[in-house]
Amino acid sequence: MKNYLFLALFLSVFLGISFAAGIGTSKISFSNNSINISQGSSARVNYTVALISGSKWATSMVLLNQTLLLQKGISAAMSNPSSDPTFSGILTISASSATPPGKYNLSFQATGDDPSVNNSVIILNVAAPSASATSSQITNPIVSSQYNKQPAYAVSHSIANYLLYALMLVVLILNIYFIAIMKYFNAKLIFASALLILIGSLAWLYGDINGGLFYYIAAGFAAIIIGTILWLYADYKGGAFKKRQA
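Request: output the structure for the sequence above.
Response:
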């Protein structure tokens, strides 16, 4: 009985550290939800991704209809697309000289561990430039060329992340199975320790992939340390550290 109480204590400590950051919801707001620009020009808007419930954790701001807008020559660059809410940044919206005049909706969403409940929309009105503006207009190829690259926030939806999720699920299922069929407590404890170490390693790797986010790396480090301690304790209880008698 004491052995199981010991295991429960360590697991509670790990879960407390792992989920200390928590998961909640957030909301995107803009300094201006309606923008008027001319073909071949751009405008800037301040935005804030605010935490409205739960605890902060890694969250990304994404433009849901980006592909469709790019086909029309409209692009949106975020100075700070991903962080722990609450965070802010500057959104630069650009229309190419070939963008058809008209009204466009830019729909934004917060994704990740603190997703937004509702989408936030900016209404963009694109007009043809006047004759005087056309003669003096200066294009900005640097801003336009940013959209030949993959957005920074796309890393949180990369194939690598989904592979990590799948691997974690497989490891979890296998370890639970072996823990269930093992007869002796020490064997169960070793498999539980291996589970913590593997999950901790994957969480640490996930944090590195997503820009070294502190909470993932901290939780992964804690899992590895606790798993190692439990493994050594199981070896100790099994007599691995006892001196052999001559």
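Residues 185-209 form the longest helix (25 residues).
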